[in-house]
Write a structure and sequence with these properties.
The complex is a heterodimer of chains A (270) and B (578). Chain A is mainly alpha-helical and 270 residues long. Chain A is built from 9 helices and 2 strands. Chain A has 2 domains: 1-138 and 240-270, no CATH class; 149-238, no CATH class. Chain A has helices at 17-33, 37-53, 62-82, 110-136, 139-147, 154-183, 193-200, 204-224, 243-264; strands spanning 96-101, 105-109. The two termini of chain A are 32 Å apart. Chain B has a 6-stranded mixed β-sheet with strand order 6-7-8-3-9-10, sandwiched between helices. Chain B has a 6-stranded mixed β-sheet with strand order 16-17-18-13-19-20, with helices on both faces. Chain B is built from 24 helices and 20 strands. With 578 residues, chain B is of the alpha/beta class. Classes of the chains: A mainly alpha (270), B alpha/beta (578). At the A-B interface, helix 5, helix 6 and helix 8 of A face helix 3, helix 4 and helix 16 of B.
């Protein structure tokens, strides 16, 4: 997750994870269907408002938005020059703002630019929606949701939650291994790219062997706590789902259906 | 109460090996007892623990003979999950025993595995919170907790399965003193208040003596000694032969008994204080006079005064990891060539942060550090490694080659030392670290203590002027601890400056001539061990305690406050009392 979950007392934090997941799904469907920047802009605006309601830590995600700004601009420019405008329905496809090459060649198409703008906004939409979801739903609630799925055996859920929990531990081990190599005189930041990659190879063996040992120890601890004793786990924490959550869910479902129907009528399409 | 655990003529060797790890073990443990198992590394203690709940031979394969009965069940034939509701097992590393995304989930993990209903699981979870006094951790994420808190949650997770017996395999070896105290307190409570039978594997003998009903000492797979605490610890010679630590209170009381000051050996500091306080100094003048000059036993280094030539200078050092508070606050200090320095303080005090700045792994937010008179700000860690070596706490994060010899060669090769030079230094260090017989061995096959020596050796071959060692003795038995410290002393005698980060106050008093005490990012005390351990107020502020012998001396009215060894105490005591 881009932003870690924080327990807070906001409207979104108090909303059932099922509702928040459905809301995120709605944004994803919109991002697949819509090509009009106005619609995408409105959705993005709504997400920003929701983020403010959830007291989202914008500073923690700023770095990501900064990183993707260049590719986003690139997308817009490429679309402006190269998009097959027959895909568009609006009159903007007729508008050429300027030609890059003499002889009216390589035109900068307004329709293409707007299409590229919509595509860029969709990236931000999805990233923001998922980030807000991760910030407002605790990992344990995620796990609980997955464990309710029919295909999810207890082992599958356990693997998922253990992997989630051990990512920071593995990251810490990698950092320590790299630090240890530096203290042994290894200049990891110098040399050609291929040399620098070669210098990283030595950490693979201790990382693997340490991870295997950790895995072994975890298995032993699990065994000692009777993991696998019963195939059916009756311990499923009741998930919060109030009347308000239920109504919100119905509204979101209606919105999803309307979104798809409106799309078939040409709404949201450039 | 009758026997709840019985081992009769138990033998075990791991799969595809012939060496017996357990040989003819006969042990009986009664219900409600607090039994401690001790012994040198490789004695078979962990293996023994793993036979009690059926992990051996059901999960870890091997050849097991004899009878192991735990609460009426044959542990070798009963499935582990069935044993789990009778006997729980808590391991060393808390990170590999936490399974939930929250503390509550973690406590629920075991009971949930038994197929219990949500209500029953939560009832047991609540009981764990209450009985182990860990309610304040309820909504926390397990991986954000301190070591002591994590281990408390691990114990809670096992306790929630309502076993009659809990086995602890070195539960405090990775913890700081506060963490250790927290865990020992919980263990003591669940035994005394709730009647749970405890089997505890531990090296820290001074804690054992306060709580155990029975002690079993193992050596080379066999039961070497067993009996009450008094019976076992009265055999000091045999314990010393095994290289086990003798608590200072017991060592002192044995000497007092030999010279007929007391009738019987005493176990705890409190008992020794009470006995010694009953004596009167020869004359009131003797009590009022300054303590006679004593030869400081086991002087740090070889008693030489270190040179007053700065090698490391830290000036107004400030650092913050997250930006919300300072992890190091305006630290100023000078370390001179040839000093043997200990940096002590509780976890989070800033010890490792300071050390990592000195070797260049961290850059300060403010302030400066010089090594050998040159600023380190623009120097890479690799470049600085020629002058300052750093041995990590976990040797497995430092060693990675295919053989012991290759490991020692790695550093000098990176520093372009030349093959002839490298050959020479590697041979020398192989002898110094006692691994010359294992030069071709894959390091993973070495014991933890041997790997720690190898990690140190890999830095020593680089011949830095300063060697910093982070927790050199964590998880080591006493013999290995002394081995490692003697190695550092030899280096110091050759002129190297040694800095250790440690929680072990006894090795500080035995080896170091200077102590830096850190608390909440600040350097609050700086002096010799004698100077430091008299500052009880400051030590308390840093959540530190002096060694048992210092504590004993400080609580006897006529004894000086700055006693730091048993020899010193005894000499002064005899002078005072006659």
């Amino acid at each position: 997750m881009l932003v870690d979950y924080r327990k807070r007392d906001t409207y979104l934090h108090k909303t059932s994870p099922k509702v928040l997941l459905l809301g995120t799904l709605l944004v994803i469907v919109a991002s697949i269907l819509w090509t009009h920047p106005l619609y995408c802009g409105v959705m993005l605006g709504l997400l920003v408002i929701l983020g403010k309601v959830a007291k989202f830590p914008w500073s923690q995600i700023k770095w990501f938005f900064k990183i993707i700004i260049i590719p986003v601009i690139f997308i817009m420019i490429i679309q402006a020059f190269s998009l097959d405008t027959s895909l568009l329905h609006s009159h903007y496809k007729e508008v050429i703002l300027f030609y890059l090459l003499p002889g009216e060649r390589l035109g900068f198409n307004l329709g293409g630019l707007l299409y590229g703008l919509a595509a860029s906004m969709k990236i931000y939409m999805v990233v923001l929606a998922v980030a807000i979801l991760g910030y407002t739903v605790s990992p344990s609630d995620f796990i609980q949701m997955i464990s309710r799925l029919r295909f999810a055996s207890r082992q599958f859920v356990f693997i998922f939650s253990t992997a989630w929990r051990f990512i920071p531990i593995i990251q810490k081990q990698i950092r320590h291994l790299l630090d240890a190599q530096k203290t042994r005189g290894m200049e990891l930041d110098k040399g050609k790219l291929i040399e620098r990659v070669r210098k990283l190879i030595p950490i693979v063996t201790p990382l693997l062997s340490n991870s295997l040992e950790t895995g072994d120890q975890i298995a032993l601890s699990m065994e000692a706590r009777a993991f696998g004793a019963k195939t059916k786990n009756k311990f499923i924490k009741p998930m919060q789902y109030s009347l308000r959550d239920r109504l919100t869910n119905y509204l979101l479902l209606v919105a999803l259906v309307l979104l798809i129907y409106a799309y078939t009528l040409g709404y949201g399409v450039l | 109460m009758g026997a709840i655990i019985s081992l009769q003529d138990v033998n075990f060797n791991y799969e595809k090996t012939k060496r017996k790890v357990l040989k003819g073990v006969n042990i009986t443990i009664n219900e409600g007892e607090f039994v401690v198992i001790s012994g040198p590394t490789g004695a078979g203690k962990t293996t023994l623990c793993e036979t009690l709940n059926g992990v051996i031979p059901n999960f870890i394969k091997g050849d097991l003979t004899g009878t192991i009965t735990v609460d009426g069940l044959d542990a070798s034939k009963t499935p582990v999950y069935q044993m789990a509701s009778k006997i729980g097992l808590v391991f060393q590393d808390p990170d590999t025993q936490l399974f939930g995304m929250t503390v509550e989930e973690d406590l629920a993990f075991g009971p949930a595995n038994l197929g219990l209903s949500y209500e029953e699981v939560m009832r047991r979870v609540e009981r764990s919170y209450t009985d182990l006094k860990i309610s304040e951790l309820k909504d926390r994420k397990p991986f954000e907790l301190s070591g002591g808190q994590k281990q408390s949650v691990s114990i809670g997770g096992v306790y929630a399965m309502l076993p009659k017996i809990i086995v602890f395999d070195e539960p405090t070896s990775m913890l700081d003193p506060i963490g250790k105290e927290r865990v020992f307190s919980i263990v003591k409570d669940i035994n005394k208040q709730y009647g749970i039978t405890i089997v505890l594997v531990e090296h820290e003998m001074s804690e054992i003596v306060k709580h155990a009903d029975k002690v079993i000492v193992m050596n080379k797979g066999q039961v070497y000694l067993q009996g009450s605490v008094e019976e076992v610890f009265s055999q000091v010679g045999k314990l010393q032969e095994l290289g086990l630590e003798i608590p200072q209170s017991i060592e002192l009381s044995m000497r007092l008994k030999e010279d007929h000051y007391i009738d019987k050996a005493l176990l705890t500091p409190a008992q020794v204080i009470e006995a010694c306080s009953g004596f009167q100094p020869k004359t009131p003048a003797a009590a009022a006079a300054p303590a006679p000059a004593v030869k400081q036993a086991a002087a740090a280094g070889d008693g030489r005064e270190p040179m007053r030539e700065p090698i490391i200078e830290v000036s107004h050092l400030r650092h913050s990891y997250l930006g919300d508070h300072d992890d190091l606050k305006d630290v100023n200090l000078t370390i001179n060539k040839g000093e043997f320095v200990a940096i002590i303080g509780q976890n989070g005090a800033g010890k490792t942060t300071l050390a990592r700045h000195i070797i260049g792994l961290l850059k300060p937010d403010a302030g400066a550090i010089t090594v050998n008179g040159r600023a380190i700000a623009d120097r890479s860690v690799a470049e600085l490694s020629r002058e300052v070596g750093y041995v990590f706490q976990n040797p497995d994060e430092q060693i990675f080659t295919d053989s012991v010899e290759d490991e020692l060669r790695f550093g000098p090769r990176n520093l372009n030392k030349g093959s002839e030079y490298t050959d020479g230094i590697v041979e020398e260090v192989l002898q110094d670290i006692g691994l010359h017989k294992y030069r071709e061995v894959w390091p993973k096959y070495l014991s933890k203590g041997e790997r720690q020596r190898l990690a140190m050796g890999s830095i020593i071959t680089m011949e830095p002027d300063v060697v910093i060692v982070d927790e050199p003795t964590t998880g080591q038995d006493w013999r290995e601890t002394l081995w490692i410290m003697d190695l550092l002393r030899k280096l110091n005698q050759k002129g190297k400056t040694i800095i250790i980060i440690t929680h072990n106050m006894e090795i500080v008093t035995r080896y170091c001539n200077r102590v830096l005490v850190m608390s909440q990012g600040e350097l609050i005390l700086d002096g010799t061990p004698k100077e430091i351990f008299t500052r009880r107020d400051k030590l308390k502020e840093a959540y530190l305690r002096p060694t048992d012998i210092t504590y004993i001396a400080q609580n006897i009215a006529f004894m000086p406050d700055d006693i730091i060894s048993v020899d010193e105490f005894y000499q002064v005591f005899r002078e005072m009392v006659g």
